[in-house]
């Protein structure tokens, strides 16, 4: 390994350590070879929403909206996908549990109580799409 690679690895290790020890993030691991990595970790989000008392129907609807917002293709540019995902993260997902129910807001982030959120860090998360991407660190 070259000195550049060793320095990069040492820096990455320090950053991961900082997020774990100083900021309290959960370490999810090195996901370079993990199959089916996605931009949205649905299982983590479902668990968090269930703990907050969100119904299964609203969870499914919220995840569907988030997946749709994040999806690229059919001429949709990354800028617009990011803008739509940001809107859902910032202002919540508005939907009904079913016919005859009123609209509710499903909060994907607890803005009023930030420490109630689930913070996690993973390394080398390979994402396959039009091109394969692998950021060093994903929060």
Automatic annotation (TrEMBL):
Keyword presence, DNA-binding: yes
Domain of life: Bacteria
UniProt keyword terms in alphabetical order: ATP-binding, DNA-binding, Endonuclease, Hydrolase, Nuclease, Nucleotide-binding, Restriction system
InterPro entries: Restrct_endonuc_type1_HsdR_N, Type-I_R_enzyme_R_subunit
Residues annotated as domain Restriction endonuclease type I HsdR N-terminal: 6-139
Example GO molecular function: ATP binding
Signal sequence annotation: none
Catalytic activity line of the entry: Endonucleolytic cleavage of DNA to give random double-stranded fragments with terminal 5'-phosphates, ATP is simultaneously hydrolyzed
This enzyme's EC code(s): 3.1.21.3
Pfam families: HSDR_N
A biological process term (GO) from this entry: DNA restriction-modification system
UniProt family annotation: Belongs to the HsdR family.
UniProt-recorded name of the protein: type I site-specific deoxyribonuclease
UniProt organism field: Vibrio anguillarum
